[in-house]
Structure formats: structure tokens, C-alpha cells
Design goal:
Layout: H1 3-18, H2 24-33, H3 52-68, H4 76-85, E1 94-102, E2 109-117, H5 126-134, H6 141-148, H7 160-168, H8 170-186
Antiparallel strand pairs: 1-2
Helix pairs in contact: 1-3, 1-4, 3-4, 3-8, 4-6, 6-8, 7-8
């Protein structure tokens, strides 16, 4: 079986089993109509390959559940929503383009593919994911805060707001940690356009 179908099937299975909220089915149907399951997670940093976005989302889910989920006090539905949907802002965000690169062996310039950003809805990062999710499904406050602030200090806005969000909503800290570990420790060697 095509490995890319495995990622999509696993995402859909986990999401459907764990998320029963009103609008969840419609959200998943919308994701299936976008490039979410074929898009990269980044242009060059992590999972910069076909299907990288769904790979990254599943990896963040695994880390969040393995390292931070407490069955007695945490909601599996909330953790699933946050992990699997934190980066849906990257659906319809990248396009494959080409650039000229000199082949070191032959000395000849060659066109090679790469992912370029094509942001048709520049609404920010975490806040864009929250906005897109809430078009279909209502988020709890702690879920919205976790998704909004999952980038931590890597976001384009800083200040005291993130500290207050982390202080009030532990799920936001847990999602940020899972995203960091997944990106920088688990997703090595996943950066090629043609994978």
C-alpha cells in the first residue's frame, strides 16, 4: 500500500475515533478537499516533503499522548484536536516551484523543485488554524489557546500574552513541547520535495 495513504488513513482513523464534537465530520471532509494530506509541513526545516504536514501532525499527536497525556485529568478529544489540527493553517499554503541549482558534479545548472509559500489568506499562524477549525467546530478555550500559541517564541508576535496563556492553560505548554520535540528530535531526514 502507498505509504501516503497510510498517513491519511491513520489521521482519519484517530480523528474519527477520538473527536465526536458537532462539526468534526464536516471539518474532516473539508480537509480531504484541500491539499492537507499531500502538503509539506515546511519549505525546508521539517517534513519538507510530500505528505509532510500529515506526517508532522501524527508525530505531534504521538508525542503529546506519550509524554503529556494524563487519563485522569486530560481530555483525549482535546489532545487529539490540538495535535492533529494545530497546523491546518498550512493547507493550501505551499506550492511546488522550481529554481536553478548548480550540479556540483557536472557544473551544469539544473532546474530543481522546491516548496514555496503561497499564502492566499495571511491571517497569522496559530490564529489562522483556530479560525479555520471554528468555521466547522467550536473549540474550548484551552484548545484555542493551545493551538494559537503552539509556536511559542517562534511566532511572529511576542510579549506577555504568551506567558499568560501558558500560565492559565497547561494544554498550550504541552502542545508547544510536543511540537518542538516532534519537529527537532523526531522528524529528522524528512526534507525532500520528491519523497
Amino acid at each position: 500500500m502507498d505509504k501516503s495513504m497510510d498517513y491519511k488513513s491513520e489521521f482519519c482513523r484517530v480523528f474519527s475515533e477520538n473527536v465526536t464534537r458537532h462539526g468534526a465530520k464536516e471539518l474532516l471532509e473539508w480537509l480531504c478537499r484541500t491539499d492537507f494530506f499531500t502538503a509539506p509541513a515546511s519549505t525546508k526545516y521539517h517534513c519538507a516533503c510530500a505528505h509532510g504536514l500529515v506526517m508532522h501532525s501524527l508525530s505531534v499527536y504521538d508525542v503529546l499522548i506519550e509524554k503529556h497525556f494524563d487519563e485522569e485529568s486530560d481530555s483525549l478529544e482535546s489532545f487529539t484536536i490540538c495535535a492533529l489540527l494545530h497546523d491546518i493553517c498550512k493547507a493550501q499554503f505551499y506550492k511546488v516551484s522550481t529554481r536553478n541549482v548548480k550540479n556540483n558534479e557536472t557544473g551544469v545548472w539544473e532546474k530543481v523543485p522546491f516548496y514555496a509559500v503561497d499564502d492566499i489568506f495571511p491571517y497569522g499562524h496559530g490564529e489562522k488554524s483556530v479560525f479555520l477549525i471554528e468555521r466547522f467546530m467550536k473549540l474550548r478555550i484551552e484548545e484555542a489557546m493551545a493551538i494559537r500559541w503552539h509556536m511559542g517564541g517562534f511566532d511572529d508576535t511576542n510579549g506577555f500574552t504568551i506567558g499568560l496563556a501558558y500560565q492559565k492553560y497547561p494544554l498550550a505548554v504541552k502542545l508547544h513541547l510536543a511540537d518542538l520535540e516532534s519537529t527537532y528530535l523526531r522528524e529528522k531526514n524528512t526534507s525532500a520535495v520528491n519523497k
